[in-house]
Amino acid sequence: MTMHRLAIALSLLFTLTAAASNDLRGVVVDDASAKPVAGAHVYVYTASPKIGLSAFCPSCYRDCGKKEQVDSTGTFRIEALDPTLFFNLLAVADGYEPVFANKVDPASGSVTIRMTPRSTADADRLVTGTVHDPEGKPVVGAIVEPNGYTIEQKVGSRTSRRTGYGEIPGLDKLSVTNAKGEFALRMPAAGGKLDVRVTARALAPRIERTLVAGEPRKIALMPGATISGRVLRDGQPAAGIPVKFQQQSRAAANFLGRFEIATNDDGLFVMTNLGPNETYVVSAAVDGGVVEPKIVKTGADETSADAGVLPVERGRRIAGTIVPPEGMPTPPKTQVLLVWSQTGTSATTEAAPDGRFVFEAVQDGSATLYAPLRGLTVSPRSAWFDLNEEAIIIPGEGDCLDLRVLLAEE
Predict the structure, then answer these.
(1) 47: which strand partners?
(2) Three-class SS of residue 351?
(3) Would you say the CATH fold of 225-313 matches that of 3-115?
(4) Nearest in space to 313 (alpha carbons), one of 269, 245, 383, 363
(5) Which helix (H) or strand (E) is 247 found in, with range?
(6) Which of helix, strand or coil describes residue 14?
(7) Where are the beta strands (DSSP E) in 31-181?
(8) How many Cα atoms within 13 Å fall on the side-chain side of residue 377?
(9) DSSP track, 249-294
(10) Could you say which DSSP state residue 3 is in?
(11) Could you give the 3-state DSSP secondary structure of residue 13?
(12) Which residues of 374-391 are buried (b: 16+ CB within 10 A; e: fewer)?
């Protein structure tokens, strides 16, 4: 055999060996008894690169969607996964709560997935339903989470209504749909009404309103819309830049989530499965520069909106000095916080022992500067002090230097 043929044969052997060695093996067991869960299916739900950021959406890798059923001993094997990726797995089985196993590396050995039996107690406060795709098929692994809980109470002849967001005692944090697309969430009280946010792989998020116990809801998810664009630095493609997408309106009742993707080698980004007919702020984080956010409105399902070119610029400079009350030194490791009004994003920097601080490569747009210190507050004598925010409002354009942030005791 010639050296050339030998090299080809060895290369093929190494390729086959690498593929075989990156088979994902594992076992699915009952969390309490440690016995195998019969009939369980394991899905490759999403993936992420082991190194760097991804120019693909988490569910767009070729391995996503692969699935295997466990055998009689609860074991499974998913063959020839990409060795450069971590994988998020989803296990589903009748009678059990679906469960995720996140950031699994096949090269690290067998993975054990523990499942908990699904309870059907408290049916009078159990919100249920199914999630399906545009073709009417059940969506496995959709995440259904509370997005607003309303309870009505009668006080005399009047009825009061209270709506809460975030973590609420007695309200399940989330439910994951099973193989039939079914979900269930417990509310604190039988008479409550629940808004839910539903997200699923390769489909757009959706908020479904006013679910009540005893009335199962059928929720349809659609493909959603796409936003694409390009990031350039000095006229050249900027690769590996994280681009973020969030709704312009940050009202909790309509929040669909924050999304991120990286630019490819040509500086291009394509974010799929965004909410249709929504207005998004498209922004990017760049070392040593700034990308001004773009406002982009998506169209109907299966349409694409162009964010155009997002150039990397020098940005502006915000600098100043923290001035504590007379006789008091600047506390060590004092953090200064800058929050942009348009995007709600923020940056922090640590003040020097003499109180000086600086933010480089700051984007345009009004921002609010805070110096959160226990027992101290920003004094109204500071320039550009905002009474409502109890902080300093930074002008929207140009460098802003020699700020004096006066602190006072609360």
Answers:
(1) 87
(2) coil
(3) yes
(4) 363
(5) strand 242-247
(6) helix
(7) 41-49, 67-69, 75-78, 85-92, 99-104, 111-115, 126-132, 143-155, 158-164, 175-176
(8) 12
(9) ---GGG----EEEE--TTSEEEEEEEPTT-EEEEEE--TTSEEEEE
(10) H
(11) helix
(12) eebebbeebeebeeeeeb
The string of pLDDT tens digits covering residues 163-178 is 888 778 888 888 889 8
CA distances (Å), origin 347, targets 37, 228, 312, 350, 351? 47, 26, 18, 11, 13
Please state, in angstroms and rounded to a whole number, the distance separating the CA atoms of residues 371 and 296: 33
CA angle, corner 214, sides to 209 and 216, nearest 5?
Answer: 55
CATH of 3-115, one of 2.60.40.1120, 3.60.20.10, 3.30.70.100, 1.10.357.20: 2.60.40.1120
Q: How many CB atoms lie within 10 A of CB 270?
A: 17
Quote the CATH superfamily of domain 316-409: Immunoglobulins (2.60.40.10)
Lowest mean pLDDT among 111-115, 123-127, 202-206, 342-346: 342-346
Report the pLDDT value the prediction gives residue 156, as an integer from 0 to 100: 67
Per the listing, tokens 């909790």 go with 252
Distance CA 171, CA 128 (A): 13
- Token pair, residue 298, equals 């998506």
Q: Is the dihedral of CA 204, 207, 213, 218 positive or negative?
A: negative
At residue 287, what is the residue type? D
Element housing 400 (H / E): strand 400-409
Residue 16: CB partners within 8 Å, gap ≥ 6?
A: none
54 Cβ contact partners less than 8 Å away, ≥ 6 residues apart? 48, 261, 262
- Whether residue 8 is predicted with pLDDT greater than 70 in this model: the reply is no
Provide the token pair at 351: 């003040």
**How far is it, in rounded angstroms, from Cα 392 to Cα 385?**
4
CA distances from 56 to 62, 85, 225, 269, 278 (A): 10, 12, 16, 9, 22
User: Which band of pLDDT confidence, cut at 50, 70 and 90, is reported for residue 13?
Assistant: very low
Backbone conformation region of residue 55, classed left if phi is above 0, alpha if psi is from -120 to 50, else beta = alpha
